[in-house]
Amino acid sequence: MTEIIDYGRFAERLARRQSRWELLDEVQREWGYEDPGGEPLVTREGEAPGYEPDESDPIPAALLEWWDSPVNSFAFRPRLYWTHSQWPPSSSDTVEDPPDDRIRVIMAEYEYVNEWGYLASEAHLPDPKVMVNTHDGWVMQSRSISEFFLHLALERLPAHFGWTLPVSRAAVDGDPAIVQRLQAAYRELGLPPWQEMDADALSYGAPDALIRHGRGPGAGHPIVIHGRTRAAVVQVAETLGLTWTDEDLKAPSEVPSPVEDLPAASFTEGGTDDRFRWTVISTGGTPPVPSVPGVPGLRELPGRTAMAADQDGTTVVAGDSTGRVHVWAADGSRIADRALHRAPVTAVACHRPDGGGPVVVSGDSHGVLRYWAADRAPARTAFDRRRAPVAALTSARLETGPALVAGWADGLARVWDLRSMDVADLPIGTGVEALTLTSDGVLQVTTGQGTAALRLDRDRLWPTRGLRLRLGEIDWGSLWGNRGPAYEVPGLIAEVASDDEDTAQAAVKRLYGLLVSKHTPVSAAAAAVPFLVERMLIPTNRARNTLLLLIADIADGPGEEREAVIAAVPSLLHLRDDEHPSIRWAAGELVRICGVPTA
Questions:
Q1: Cis upstream peptide for 88 (omega within 30°)
Q2: Is residue 340 a contact partner of residue 370, using CB atoms and an 8 Å limit?
Q3: According to the UniProt entry, where is the signal peptide (predicted)?
Q4: Centroid of chain to Cα 347
Q5: pLDDT tens for residues 201-228?
């Protein structure tokens, strides 16, 4: 974040806003929220299938707009908000209506202590005020529905995307002048107090920071500072005269994926990457000319931005500037026409797996990939997303099965083995105009200097492919971890095999939460043990120091998982003499827990 935004001037922005949702969109982006691509997870239709509004009970235009708006972050990521939506708007089940009127509830916090809604007498207005229930009855929360959703985003998103410093009640009670310094140094945002959980909170603005002053017994922390940067929080803390430690200052839980900083793509014959995943076999070649059948409607497609055909020339796909993707059979009959993107489509590809229908992949200028079988509805979520426009796409049927390559404008190419879903990131450089993958595993990279041919080494490219295929032979959905069906477990085991230490260690930590229990049998743990032991026996595994302890703690369970570990102990006993003290200690714990004789 290079631009400093002074939220002390937020009231001015609030006063001059013109469209209902423009400021909401700006605030969300400023704090790091990004459109995830795909379809909304929460919709009006999903909340009340088949519901048709009663004309005698009108719905305010602003509420309808919010539900359908592409900047409605609640619809796409509701877990950021700690609230439940209500559609259709209805009376409260727990709170009496105000005298001589009715409330139409539109949102409630998770515990339903507070509900927010508009007055039925104002439902005919395009953007009526929003009320909230308190101990004093229903009071005004926001001057309009659109202001309510803006305020809700300011209340919720900074806690996920920003740096956070909560100030305890003891600290504020011990130094009441903190509040006086807050009021003297910073201006309010221009929004009414936020009412929730027996507290009302005024928000103040600072450069790159928001300060929430919670009043009332429900305010667990009377002051909470959120900053777009760590420095912004520190500056506010110093201004308020606070005493704090690094442990008090919480880093963002949501960190956007980085954009690569790569030079222009450049290749030398015989060159390779640092892991020998590809080798340049030629440079300066003529760019391949894609063969796309001229089906009726393709050439005349308004706003056409990209087109491609499958390997047999039997299916044609095109994208346009509105985000729609169009699919035809070679005879000109239309197979599909879908609005899949909220940005112009920048690249498309199509392949036909063995014995199946056409599969389409499309990318847009927001960096979103959608992947779907043309004869079925697409998955609601995006296949992938990065913070750079998709520059090129290609797919092919290799000896190992279908493969997909996506290139983004920041110079990263991502290569999937679609059968196992193993994936590799290749930082090939910027300026890529086209990618073409051939059936013999050669990736042709076209830049302004010509086309280079890179021979891919599939074993080095997808080192966990075999592991993932074997994991895929188990019905993990029928097995249980500590938090329900074990769908997440096979992917985490594959991540344990990652050559990135942070990824491998994070996977082990997550597996602890899913597989370790001293009181309840965990069926997924027994199935996972052979794979975890296999990873432990690979000397280059980046998580060995914690992985062996995970295996030992699984053995402390009461079910089949204990027997699975005991069966594997003989293959692990040599680790008692490992050169790393942490592994020697974990091996000792394994022997102790399993009750294996040491002599």
A1: yes
A2: yes
A3: none
A4: 22
A5: 999 999 999 999 998 887 889 999 999 9
